[in-house]
TrEMBL record:
Species: Corethron hystrix
Positions of transmembrane segments: none
Catalytic reaction annotation: a uridine in tRNA + S-adenosyl-L-methionine = a 3-[(3S)-3-amino-3-carboxypropyl]uridine in tRNA + S-methyl-5'-thioadenosine + H(+)
Protein name, entry field: tRNA-uridine aminocarboxypropyltransferase
Pfam families in alphabetical order: DTW (PF03942)
């Protein structure tokens, strides 16, 4: 009886890609950069943590990010999760998630900064973020899991409703890739001189 040993697909231990598409030569030689005016944490579903070529893995090679792996922030062990829970409790974290009540990124950051000013002036409940950086929390999961994770944190009160009036809350922002884009700006043939036709295609441009 012959035993078929399935060969493992080789992957780069650093970037997690196949050696033929290894991205390491293009990564910064120095250690990951640090954001000066913002700080990022990613609540990562355990399934995503098992993926070798995840974008979070790549991001953490170029940028300092805090990765909190688990479905539920309040059940993740370690100091980082506790720090971020406390930051959320104090109203200092902007959640990047496209919920119905999410606002645009700029609007969310403006609200965050004006809130900090109102806290400093004593006109708003909550505690300010002393180092002045904007703290962003992302969710890394499939859409189905991200929705589950989001709803869990809302149900438990970890993600309080968005701010209203003088009431503290958690600002949600949605990234809009088409922000500022208008149909008149779209010029489909602007790359015509540099692109090659698809193989086997006799398509006329
Ligand atoms: Zn690599």
């Amino acid at each position: 009886m012959s035993v078929v040993v399935k060969k493992k697909r080789p992957i780069c231990p650093k970037c997690g890609h196949h050696p033929s598409t290894c991205l390491c030569p293009y990564l910064p030689k120095e250690h990951p950069g640090t954001l000066r005016r913002s700080s990022i944490a990613i609540l990562q579903h355990p399934h995503e943590a098992r993926r070798f070529n995840s974008s979070v893995r790549l991001l953490s090679l170029v940028q300092e990010v805090t990765v909190l792996t688990g479905r539920r922030l309040d059940q993740i062990q370690g100091t980082d999760a506790k720090i971020w829970l406390e930051r959320i409790r104090c109203g200092n974290v902007v959640l990047v998630y496209p919920s119905n009540d999410a606002v645009g990124l700029e609007e969310g950051v403006d609200e965050y900064r004006s809130r900090r000013k109102r806290i400093a002036d004593g006109n708003f409940e909550g505690r300010g973020n002393d180092d002045g950086v904007v703290l962003f929390l992302f969710i890394d999961a499939t859409w189905t899991h991200a929705k589950e994770m989001y709803q869990y944190h809302v149900r438990c009160g970890i993600f309080p409703p968005p701010p209203s009036g003088e009431k503290n809350g958690m600002i949600r922002v949605a990234m809009d890739p088409f922000r500022g884009w208008t149909p008149t700006q779209f010029r489909p043939s602007r790359f015509i001189s540099i692109r090659c036709p698809a193989s086997g295609s006799a398509k006329k441009f």
